[in-house]
What does this fold into?
Amino acid sequence: MDVTLFALGGTISMTGHDGGGVVSRLGGADLVAAVPGLAGTGVSLDVRDPRAVPSANLTFGQVLDVLDDAAAAVAGGAHGVVVTQGTDTLEETAFLADLVWPHAQPLVFTGAMRNPTLPGADGPANLLAAVRVAADRTARDLGALVAFKNEIHAARWVAKSHSSSTATFVSPNLGPVGHVVEGRVRLLVGLPRHAPLPRPAAEGLAANRVALHTVSLDDDGTGLAGLADSHQGLVVAGFGVGHVPADLAPVLGELAGRIPVVLTSRSGAGSVFTDTYGAVGSERDLMRRGLIGGGLLRSYQARVLLRTLLAGGADADRIRAVFADRS
Ligand code: ASP
It folds into this structure.
């Protein structure tokens, strides 16, 4: 089995330097060399080092460039792909990858919470699990996956839930879709796949900014003034099932007349509603004012989806249809 590994930096690759603190210093070959047992898997790894950055610095364009190279790798015969990166933005990059990855070959993201200088560094175990999943035939046709702590999560559902725990990745609405048990990949559920979205071009990304606004107590929307002049879309993370203060509702309605505005929940799990509550600022009111329901999508995912659609040239009807289909 051949697996291509793309190393993008993050804590998994960070060690100390003279200026103090840890920074990305290890390349893909170093990460591989630190994994006991990798040779015994029989997987042959082709290692690439596109960049080594904290994942806060990654951009949509950089991730899509890596996916282009990953597509070339599978076209050249790779049975799967592993991407190592920082965990901070991993749920967004893996979700973006899942939206546009059309291939059957597994595309598996992983990283680490403890850097290699710490006792109990988790990078080697996570990398070994990710390689096993990428090389496993049963992981084909599942889109992008996240392998962490011997759990396998679907990129569609995964979330970083803790700032420092090695058990940070969870899928609040589902749970893990599988496990790596004694080195064996055990998938527990099938995953329905949607038709892949077109890979947005750099010009489309540059021309389409999507803001994310988290609603909080007594929010009157002053911070949203002028947003439609600088952004092409907005995701709102509302209270509970999709509620906002009454004063904010007309502000959002006005914005929805100019740009797509997607309603999600700031709760982190569960769906926004569309047709239950009747007060001003409730989900029914916001739907009536033209907002798009984000369903079960987390706000970060909704933002990735909306920007991907806008950058790919989708019009308002198409955006509404895709959200209806995927949320
Ligand atoms: N700040 C780091 C990053 O995302 C955290 C990590 O890798 O876990 O690059």
Residues 10-11, 54-55, 86-88, 111, 113 surround aspartic acid (CB under 6 Å).
